[in-house]
């Protein structure tokens, strides 16, 4: 998983915003709800939401742990770039975005998607 490519991918999702939280974390959000978090500057890891049924499978892999403070909401933290290939990482990030987008109000979803 190339963390810089992952950041670039997050920026392509409709309605995505990014800001800094907790002094040194770069947060990607849709509708003011986070879907991915990494550190500012050169990324050395990334957290994102996953489907409930994938959480245990992913955290059983070396280099992926339950995300600190967010594990109860089924977030994982990829601490080793070799733990995921770029294609799988892209699918997981897109799914994280979709999970968060799906929790937004229908009105906000329409505004973001331009429908």
UniProtKB/TrEMBL annotation:
Top-rank lineage group of the source organism: Bacteria
Single annotated GO MF: DNA binding
Pfam name, any one: YjbR
Keywords, in A-Z order: DNA-binding
Protein name per its UniProtKB record: MmcQ/YjbR family DNA-binding protein
